[in-house]
Amino acid sequence: MRVRQRTFGDFVKAFLAFVALAVLLVGVPAALAMTAGWPFPETFEPMEWLKQDISVSTFLGILTFVVWLAWAQFTACVLVEMKAALSGVGVPGRVPGAGPSQLLARQLVAALLLVGATAASFTPSLAQLGQTFDDTQRPTVAAAQQTPGLFAQQQEQAAGAAAAVAEQASHSEAAPAAAEKQGDTKFYRIQPPEGRHHDSLWEIAERHLGDGRRYKEIFELNKDRVQPDGSRLSEASLIRPGWIMEMPGDARGGDLVEMPDDAPEVSPEVREQISDYARTGDGASGGGDHAQGSDQAQGGDQAQGSGGDTAQVGLPEQRPAPGTGHADLKRPAPEQAATPAQDSSSFGLPEALLTAPLLAAGLLGALGHRRRQALWQSAFAGIGGRRGMEPPTPTGDALDVQDALLVGADPEGVRLLDRSLRGLAASLAAESHPLPTVYAAWLSNGDLHLQLAQPSGKPPSPWQLGQDQTFWMLARADAESYEDVDTAAPYPGLVSLGTMDDSRLLLNLESVPGIVSLSGREEDRAAVFASVAAELATNGWSDRMTITLVGFGEDLTALAPSRLRHLDGIEALIETMEAETRQRRGALGAAGHDSVLTGRTGPAQHTRWAPHLVLLAAEPSPEDAMTLAELAADASRLGIGYLVGTGSGDLPGAAWEMEITGEGRLLAPLLGLELDAQLLPAAHRRAVVELFTDADPDRSPDGPGTAPPFLVDISEQGRPAVYARLVGPYEIIGLETPDGERSALLHEALALLLLHREGVHPRVLSSALWPRGVTDDVRQALLDRLRDWLGTDPDGTPRLRTDDNGRLTLAKSVVSDLDVLRSLYHEATQGKGVDSRAVRGRLLTDALVLVRGPLLADRPEGRYRWLTHEIVDAQLPLLVADTGLALAEFHMEKDRAEKAIEALNAALRTAPADERLWNELLRATHALDDPARLTALASDLVARSGARGLPPRTEALLDDLLPTWRDAVAAAG
């Protein structure tokens, strides 16, 4: 990471700041003392003062005293800011009534100390993740090397840079000799996966070099060299079975190949591949330079000696996620462990969403909720005849974005993050400890690190202290032990900004002591703002919040109308925030809390402590910027956060300054951060919004929209070649059961394809089956086995096909009972059954006979987790209920109440919570003219309703059918 060096402009700013401080702190009192004298009178006689005449000298005396007070207040502000800057601990204290004065003092002190020898951070570092607590006791040079921070001390940086350069130089000189001494070049062949285990460079380094952190040495030795399959190693986490890795000279282990020509346990083909590979590296010419390892990889051409214009600050070593491990709280970027050369374009899927697992999980969950809501509303309100049918199938960019969400989402990571934070809040509340202020969270290889604003003592178990007392850490294994707890979300303002190495940063916007500014090109800033807004609106670790968008994102309000609101301009924003700031200050004072954290998870758990996050993409004018700075000075205590865009990068009152580059890098030099930014570009944003607007329950469908996406020939001539029974226990007719352990995997893949007749992206299929990631060869092997299992139609056409867009589709000869059920209902209500009563009754009866229980009733535990992303669990009960209601209506037309009751009871076995079925069952039972039976049914309904009571419409219907039902039910007990 590069840290900007002091420039001539910095020295000029520091000099001017020194002059200004000298004038204000020394010159002003000296001038007052010489011209107006000491501000206090020689005697204290208040009564005599009141009797004196009011004259010009009286006014001058009062004015002089006010000026002395202003000087004293400014001096106090300077002292407070100097103490906070030099100590580097906590947020500067607030001097009462000194908003503008303290802001001016802060800027002058920062300008002065930025080039000073003792420039310490105003807030803790966001980039020192990885140190142990003991590391903080090391000498200054070691600390400078390991801990890049906010306003890191320049002398320590210089010492650390010099030490790093010296170490790299000595390493460079010693490496060739070490290589010659330790023997010939060694090679390792990447092993194929075993079960869910995949080889990784970390594990290889751990086995053969004794330290997994030396994986970077292996990476540098083999970077960009052509592998036997024609592809190249470009990222340390992207390796594939069969690849060959040249190893450092000190590598040890039985599965290393040192002399391929004389290694009988290695096949001739592999020996030839290793020999060819050896000729492509620098090691073939006896260089041996690669053993310089990660130091040179990180230093590179930065190690130019003391004359360079930049200082290299080494990040703490981070363990990379193994091929089977979990990035964030679960896994690395989906399937990044193996992307084939021909898949470099990610099959056309948006990379921005593939590498944003928390954002994708939030969007996917919110989209599923929106679609279920639309289904239920259309079912109970009868909108547009779409009852029980599929939502509109997305196309084009919207379809690609939906597939990217399915592949990239990490709902398990979101669940663990939410449980971990709520569990921490519950533990602290049980111990009567307040919540600490958290600036950021790091998700690193399954572990969660919280960075605190200041030391807060020992965390509750199973949390542990991290690299120092401002870090609390929770291991993933401990996070899995947390259960759901009934407590408010403690840090709902956390939002992903990007990744650094193998760690993902979530910044807590509501805790930042001031404004967070974002500079860069307008389109790049818009992508960051859109990502932040979308994740805040849909994340799973927040209860509720208000997100105000200004200058962008009016279309994004469709994602979460209850959270997102759009304002037209900065004037409206300032008016709104001034009123809310006053209201929150008053509410905090009345409740006796010093900040929103002490009231959010305490006994009261006030709902008004939900955060309000302001995302202002339009650059404010200087006057508006000053007003926002004043509002933001106390915002972190009130639960209000500000993210403001600026083209110049210079924003008054900005506590943290960040810049987004055209290459997608998020830079914050003073924070010691350089991230791969999480973005939501304009095209992807429009596609996401399209998905949500199409699923809007209040939006009428375009066109008829009543036919299922796949209709089956239900005549005798339409008998399928392969028939799968999904409604109830899973059975397949027409295929032999696959042998071995892969049978369950093939059955699951076929079920996913049957539920998506429109086609399934290959990456969506593999992500559903292997949510922790899979290599491309394993995925291809599965598809080959699936094609072989399904076979071909009589004309030789394979039953598993690939369409023009690369998506997998099934032939029409492969059918499920759900397809037949949909087709029968459609034909009965919109086809031949409309004109023929006899045909309608037969079709509806046949449809209801297909229903044997819930979808995939006997699915094994741990599989079919992708069903949580689907809405078929809501569609099937509605479809069955519609079928039962239509058949009951068919029988009631001929006064066959018993037949109608039989049909309704059959539907209730699959849709027991559908109020429409119970209401029709009450009407059909009433038609039997049997009050005792109707009373018994009413008692059953009351018992099923429990403490919630009967739904209002059902209660009103019982009042009409059986006015005495309450007394009868009470008498029945």
Automatic annotation (TrEMBL):
<keyword id="KW-0802">TPR repeat</keyword>
<feature type="transmembrane region" description="Helical">
    <location>
        <begin position="57"/>
        <end position="82"/>
    </location>
</feature>
<dbReference type="InterPro" id="IPR036779">
    <property type="entry name" value="LysM_dom_sf"/>
</dbReference>
<keyword id="KW-0902">Two-component regulatory system</keyword>
<feature type="repeat" description="TPR">
    <location>
        <begin position="881"/>
        <end position="914"/>
    </location>
</feature>
<dbReference type="InterPro" id="IPR019734">
    <property type="entry name" value="TPR_rpt"/>
</dbReference>
<feature type="domain" description="Bacterial transcriptional activator">
    <location>
        <begin position="816"/>
        <end position="962"/>
    </location>
</feature>
<feature type="region of interest" description="Disordered">
    <location>
        <begin position="278"/>
        <end position="346"/>
    </location>
</feature>
<dbReference type="InterPro" id="IPR011990">
    <property type="entry name" value="TPR-like_helical_dom_sf"/>
</dbReference>
<keyword id="KW-0812">Transmembrane</keyword>
<dbReference type="InterPro" id="IPR005158">
    <property type="entry name" value="BTAD"/>
</dbReference>
<dbReference type="InterPro" id="IPR052196">
    <property type="entry name" value="Bact_Kbp"/>
</dbReference>
<dbReference type="GO" id="GO:0000160">
    <property type="term" value="P:phosphorelay signal transduction system"/>
</dbReference>
<protein>
    <recommendedName>
        <fullName>Bacterial transcriptional activator domain-containing protein</fullName>
    </recommendedName>
</protein>
<feature type="compositionally biased region" description="Low complexity">
    <location>
        <begin position="291"/>
        <end position="312"/>
    </location>
</feature>
<dbReference type="Pfam" id="PF03704">
    <property type="entry name" value="BTAD"/>
</dbReference>
<keyword id="KW-0472">Membrane</keyword>
<feature type="region of interest" description="Disordered">
    <location>
        <begin position="251"/>
        <end position="270"/>
    </location>
</feature>
<feature type="transmembrane region" description="Helical">
    <location>
        <begin position="103"/>
        <end position="122"/>
    </location>
</feature>
<keyword id="KW-1133">Transmembrane helix</keyword>
